[in-house]
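Figure 2 data, in text form.
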Amino acid sequence: MLFSDILAISDLSDHPIILTGHLHPDYDSAAACLLMQQFLKQCGINAQICLYGKMDAHSNAVLQKHGYDPETLFAPVPENAWLILCDCHTTTQPGKVIACVDHHPVMDVPDMPVYLNRSASSAGRIVYHEAAAYGLQTNRETDFLTLASVYMDTRACSSTKFQAADKPWMIETAARWNFDLPALERDGLCLTDLTQPADLLAQNDFRAYTFGKYHVASSYVQAEKEEAVPIGTLLECCETACCSGAYDYWVFLCYIPPKKITDVYLFNRDENAWNKTRHVGILSRGNDVIPALERKLIDR
């Protein structure tokens, strides 16, 4: 179990315990850290959250609407820190990684004392489930953070990442606390502000990966209508960023939730060409698209 395994680590109190997420954290990564912080406090461990990079505008706005100040979650990691990763399994943060809670497929399991990576609607949901199983106290705030993390990380439960088994808990939790489910569903769609400049839109929710000798970048937009997306201009910006950033590939995704469509555009720098595939359904970038590309590249 996650919390018993973490607490079993010797000399835990001799180091600053830092909670951090992936570079450029989203709502789920932040929520998982906030949940972990609350539950560890019940165990007598004061952990500090040190996110890094830049949070996407939508996650930032939703956190603020829910009463959190995202700026307070970003801080440098102190020396001699021990890290607990939330919503990721690797990091460029300094310090020693002692544990991770993730829900993204990996080809090579990282070497660390506590490693928990399983399919789940959100990383926040894993932290919450593990805390409840360990007997820690949940409350209105932990329930809301977890519920919101599911909606935000599954595009309002429409992504392939969503676990249908979570639905009864979500309905019961929302009813018990009188949470506004329609508002959570709207937030969870994570619609992109398409009025932003094209160069910013092209790098919306930017992520970078390294698979062997290959360097891959990825970004996406999400819109209600396909015709509202200036896809040609965005792909030109991605292509420029790919070449100037020395990436081998760029994956750009265009989600249209009302039509349940995911368009995946893959730029190959060597071939100087884009390949487009259209998928029926809302694919998960972290669970479907990027792992499939990783397997393809590693097999070469």
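Caption note: Residues 51 and 77 are 9 Å apart (CA to CA).
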